[in-house]
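Much of what follows relies on a compact textual record of a protein's fold. A record is reproduced here so that you can trace the correspondence yourselves:

. . .
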Amino acid sequence: MDVHGLRELYDLVLRLSAVHDLDALAQEVVDHARRLLGVDVAYLALAEPDGSLVIRVTDGSLGPRLRGVVLPPHGGLAGQVADTGEPVQSADYLGDAGLTHLGEVDRVAEDEGLRTILGVPLRLRGKVAGVLMVSQRAVRRFTAAESSLLTSLGSFAAIAIENAKLVTALAAANDRLERAVRLHDRLSEVALHGGAPEDVVVPLSELVPGLVLVADEHDEVRAAARAGALVAARLEGKPSKLFAHVRRTRVDGLSVTVPLASANAYFGALQVVPDAPLDEADVRLLERSAMTIALVASVERAERRTTAELVEHVVTRRVREVRDLRRPHLVVVSEDPRLRNLAPLSSTVDGNWVALVRADEATVRSWPLGTTGLAGPATGAAALADAYDDAAACVRVLNALGRQGATASPADLGPYRYLLSQAGREEASTFAGRTLAPLLTHDEDRGTDLVRTAEVFLRNGRRKTPAAEELTIHPNTLYQRLDRITALLGEDWQEGDRALDIQLALRVHRLADDLT
C-alpha cells in the first residue's frame, strides 16, 4: 500500500472514530470504499447472531432493493468471505459456477447489472463481523493492491463499528463511560497529530488498573505506565512470534495482549497486566487503543521508508538535487542503531546508520552513540554525498586506530585525515613506503615481521619487556629483531624526529592496509 493510500485510510479512520451512529458509520465506510476503488457500487452486510448477513447500506445502487437483502449462512460470495475470513473476487458473478447462488440475491444482482464483485471480511478478534463488497457493472479484475487496500479498510471498519456498538450499549452516563470518552478524545488527538507510545499508554493506564505497555515488532518495550505514570517494565512472552500468523487478542493468565497490525504489517503489541481480570468492555478499549497506535505506526513506517530512501539516494549519488535539502545539514554516520531514533532523516547504507541533521556539531557529539563520523555541514545533494564519504571514512579510520566508541570529524583525525580520500591514501602510502622501504623489502623477501616489531616497540615507548609480551616472543628474539632493524634503518631510527617519522610511517602503513 503506498503512502497516498495510507493517508486516505488514515483520514477515514479519523472520521470513523468520531461517528457513534451505526448506520451513519456504515454509510461512511461504503461511500469511501466506492471512491477509493473507483467502482460503480459498494455495499456492506453485517453479521447477525444466526450467522446470516444483512446488507445495511449501499452506495451507487440503482434502487432500494439491494438494501435490506438477507444473505443466509454460507450462501453466495459474501457467505464464502464470512466462512473463510479472506477476500473473495468473482470476475462475472452471475456466471460464476464456483459460488453457491441464491435466487433472490441473483435477481437483485441482475437488476443492478452487477458483474465483477470483490468482498472482504470485517474481522474482529478472529471472527467475521460483516462483509464489505464493491462491484463493477463491467468485467474488471481488481489488483492485489486494491484488494489489500479494501481489506485494510474492512479491518478498521470492523473495529469502528464495534466501537459504535460499544458506545451505544454504554449510553448511560457513568464514571467509567466518561473516562472512556476522555480516552477516545485523547486517542483521536494522537491519531490526528501523531504521537509516541506513551501518549496512549499513560491515559490508558488511568482507565485500566494495572501495568500497560507497548512493544515494537522486535519485542522491545517502547513505553510502559501504571496509574497514569511512566514506569520501567518487562514484556510478558514474545508477541512477535505469537502474532506472526494469528493476529487477534490473546488472554494468557492475567495478561491481555493485543496486536498492533494492519492487514499486511505487524508493528508490535499492546499488553496489559491488570490488577484484576478485565471484562469485555476493558478488552474492547484495549483494541481501540491498539488501533490508534497501529494507525500512527503505519503512517510513520511509510514516511520513514520514504525518508530512508531519500537519504540513501542522496549519499549514494542517485539524485542530483533535492528541494528539501537546500539548507545546510550535518552528515552523521554511525555504527549505532540508536541514531535512527535521534534523527528523522536517517537510513542504513553499507551496514552503517546515516543521518542528515540540522543540529550543530556540539549537539550531535552529545548524543549517546557508538563509533560515529561527522562531516559538513553541507548544502545540496552533491556536497552532502561528499560529506557522507568523509563521515563514513572517519568511522573506518576510528576503527583502524582502535578508537571504537569515539566520535570524530575529519579535523579530529590530525594527520590521519589524509587517509579519508583515495588521493590522500596514495600519498600516505608513498610516504610510508619510502620511509620503511628496507623493512618492507626484508619482510617480503624473507618472511620476517620487522615492520610490526618496530611499530609495537615504538608504541610501547621503546620498552622491551612489554613489547616482547605483546609480540608473544622471547626477549632475546626481540633483541635480535631490533639489531636487524638498526642495521637496515640506521642507528638513529629510535631517536628524535627520525623516530617520529618512522612511527608515523608505520601507523600510516597499517591504516592504509586496513582502509583498502
In short: The longest helix spans residues 280-315. The CA atoms of residues 319 and 464 lie 55 Å apart. The longest strand covers residues 127-136. The mean pLDDT is 78.
